[in-house]
């Protein structure tokens, strides 16, 4: 092997390491967040990007534009937000068909 081939292999190895250490985990985290947002239901408790705990009160899906959420922050305070404002789902609401047993 000459110096050019070795340099090329080193550059490829650095690019592969960069992909495996930074790009791939970020994509997986983004995919998990998208799945979480897609599976939101009324009654779910979420954390917003601003750090507020809120309960999803309504989900509006307009024909054009982003999906809008009505979030209850507590004490009767309701705000409207887009789905990109959701950082994480804390708890999921029970499905409508299931009744909790006491």
Task: Tell me what you see in this structure.
The chain is an alpha+beta fold and 102 residues long. The chain has 2 domains: 1-38; 41-94, SH3 type barrels, CATH 2.30.30. It is 35% helix and 30% strand. The protein has one helix at 3-38; strands at residues 45-48, 53-60, 68-74, 77-82, 86-91. It has a 5-stranded antiparallel β-sheet, covered by helices on one side. A hairpin with a 2-residue loop joins strand 3 and strand 4.
Measured on Cα atoms, how large is the radius of gyration?
A: 21 Å
Distance between the termini: 73 Å
List unreliable stretches of 5+ residues.
none
Q: What kind of assembly state do the chains in view correspond to?
A: single chain
Number of helices: 1
CATH class of the largest domain: Mainly Beta
Q: Outline the biggest β-sheet.
A: 5 strands, antiparallel
Helix content: 25-40%
> Can you write the helix and strand succession as a string?
HEEEEE
- For this structure, the CATH topology of the largest domain is SH3 type barrels
Strand order of the largest sheet: 4-3-2-1-5
What's the number of structural domains? Answer: 2
How much strand? 25-35%
What is the typical, i.e. mean, pLDDT? Answer: 89
CATH architecture of the largest domain: Roll
Number of strands: 5
Class from helix and strand fractions: alpha+beta
Principal-axis shape equals elongated
Briefly summarize what is shown.
This protein has 102 residues and is of the alpha+beta class. The chain has one helix at 3-38, and strands at 45-48, 53-60, 68-74, 77-82, 86-91.
């Amino acid at each position: 092997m000459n110096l050019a081939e070795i340099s090329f292999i080193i550059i490829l190895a650095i690019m592969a390491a960069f992909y495996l250490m930074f790009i791939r985990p970020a994509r997986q985290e983004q995919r998990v967040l998208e799945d979480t947002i897609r599976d939101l239901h009324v009654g779910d408790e979420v954390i917003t990007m601003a750090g507020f705990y809120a309960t999803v009160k309504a989900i509006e899906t307009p024909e054009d534009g982003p999906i809008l959420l009505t979030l209850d922050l507590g004490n009767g305070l309701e705000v409207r937000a887009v789905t990109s404002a959701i950082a994480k789902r804390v708890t999921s609401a029970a499905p409508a068909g299931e009744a909790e047993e006491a």
